[in-house]
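In response to reviewer comment 3 from the previous cycle, which asked for concrete evidence that the modeling workflow produces usable outputs, we include below a single protein chain processed end to end. The sequence was submitted unchanged, and the resulting structure tokens are shown without manual editing.
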Amino acid sequence: MSTTRAVWIFVVALTAIRLSMLATTDLEFDEAHYWMWSERLAPAYFSKGPAIAFFIRASTAVFGSNESGVRFFSPLLAAGTSLLLFYFARRLFNTTAGLWAVIALNVTPIFNIGAFVMTIDALSIFFWLAAMFTFWLAVEKSPRFSWYWPLTGLLTGLGFLSKYTNALELVSIVLVLALAPRLRREFARPGLYSLLGVFALCTVPPIVWNQQHAWITLVHLRSRGSLEHGFGFHPAEVLSFLGQHFLTYSPFLFLALAWGVIASWRRVNQQFKVLFLMWFGLPVFLFYLLLSLNKVAALNWDALAFLGFGLLAIHFWWEKLEASMTLRLGALVAILVGLTMSVVALDTDMLRVAGYQFKRSDPSDRMRGWKSATSALEKMRNDLETKLGEKLFLIADARDRASEISFYLRDKRVEGPGHPPAYIPESQDMVNQFSFWPRYDEFVELKPGTPRPEGETYTEENGVNPFVGRDALFIRSGDFNQQSRWGPLRCGATAKSCEPGRYFFAVTIALFLYEKLFPQTSGCSMRCPQRNVSCRTMAISAEDSGLYSTCRIFLRCPRLRRQVLRQFPWWYLFLTKRKASRFYNQR
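The workflow returned the following structure tokens.
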């Protein structure tokens, strides 16, 4: 069997396995949020370009709004990246080098996670490698013009629409042309400028969108890098940034990669292949290494650098591996360790079975419990609506919970065109994409002939707020053993034990009956001037903590809360769900 056919069989089989696993966990926070983007297509979004939304929209249109539909393109992009890497390595070196490059890539933990969940990194890495390959083909045909030049610009632009970091690929391209003497004449030829022109066209949608939205993406990126208060110098952050790579890229594989890249530096001006691969990795890596002097960068931010670095390490180690049995055994151990870490990363329950107890929260909990928690929340909403005789809307304390709840609600029941199924607390600041969607604190134009609500007069806003006087359920993060903001949560409920790695939703309700203390607020006649919503707005706190979840209803209106705390600093009436039902019936 030829090596090329073996690679294809390996990639196809691995892709089939990954596709079969897509529905085994709930969506991760970002996946659910990107799904919400796909339901509201736009030229750009708060923090990212539009590519991820369009890909998810395409897959969910075919397979439905479920875990497999949202994640469908992730294994396919991983397969495409693997095949591109193989053919690129084969062109640079030989077929066997391409085979081992594909194997090393697919046992790397961070790549396996990216091949399972649907995030911008899967798109970004694919388009970065595709553009790097086509640029190599364009350079091979130099000085003749070829269509690989504008194709490189298009692929770089599509990468930019996926993740803005991909714009750094232009820096790599310019540096390669400037540092290779035989290619410097390309600055006087049309190829480079056709590349830049096509790329510039791809940047128009996000630039126009940001110009219309106060350049919010630039503000966000500055905040993400913790640059809003200046640039600091924190060497410990750099050590943390580098140290974490040993886990996410597998310790032996990352050590071999770092060794190969550092050792190849002395040949950067002697071999064009080394120069090419080096400068397709260094700009991204150095950018985030410098940024980590101020605050440690996220582990996936510099992933683009390791495509070029990985091929460079293959080039460095290949001849040594062929000559040394010891190194070959070491490479086999490194691959097995990486494979083991990848399997554990995808299924941490294996550690529990082995008896390992997490000292901190299990990272994979981010993809567990949301479906069951939302189902319990939906049942609670329906029960409360039956008791109160009115429809409730949902508010979550953060975009993560709002996105997960919005995805897993069976009855999404949006309040109007463009409205999300669950809102986040209103704010004058633009904190995420929810800030650009319709909100519950906004005024809408009063339809002609519609009577204005009694007692509600707006002089500055020509309209009404349809949420005034309505009740909402507020979902917030909580802990069963955590004390509440206004006092201890005494409900007499205890967490139940369950099998390791199995989760359920145990509900505890505590009700603060402020209407009994302040009769003048009965019937929600009291309005909060800051929020234009009912003072009787209630909240539910729910968090899947691994073995249990809790729910808590508490008073939300800031003005009324301050009034309560001044007059009754220690008066908290907490009831169990059974007793709370009796009070509801008495009201």
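Residues 479-587 have pLDDT under 50 and may be disordered. We consider this sufficient to address the reviewer's concern, and the full set will be provided in the supplementary archive.
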